[in-house]
Amino acid sequence: MNHRKKNNHLSRKYGHRKSILSNMSSSLIKNKKIFTTLAKAKALKKYVEPIITKSKINTTHSKRNIFSLLRDKIAVSELFNESFKKVRERPGGYTRIIKIGFRSGDMAKVSLIELVDFNNIYNSKKNLKLVRRSGKKKRVNPIE
């Protein structure tokens, strides 16, 4: 049974897991998307979403708290930039996990984790096309 086992340990000790999640979250904040295994992506989502929620409060205290989790000055300054304004207005659900396929070496499930507001394909209104999903087109009988 898996009751009361909140986080995935990723087969690593505490210090290694903490540094992996910290490095991956700072890479996600800087690059807006990263490719990783599905298990790491799910663990990263639980780790990075509270950090982004804390960045909504623009105080020195919240910056120091976030720096203690990320350990990267560039990523912390990126979180408090104007480019993340759209993210801070969102009430939650800052990241999206897209399953890509399997890694050829060990057949691990590979996925893409990205920040939702920075994907131009899903967010642009002009790329949306109205598609009719009705039945087949009516054919005109050439004999008539």
UniProtKB/TrEMBL annotation:
Signal peptide: none
Coiled coil location: none
KW Membrane (keyword) present: no
UniProt key word Ribonucleoprotein: yes
Annotated SUPFAM superfamilies: Prokaryotic ribosomal protein L17 (SSF64263)
Known partners and oligomeric status: Part of the 50S ribosomal subunit. Contacts protein L32.
Family the UniProt entry places it in: Belongs to the bacterial ribosomal protein bL17 family.
Protein name per UniProt: Large ribosomal subunit protein bL17
Organism: Blattabacterium punctulatus
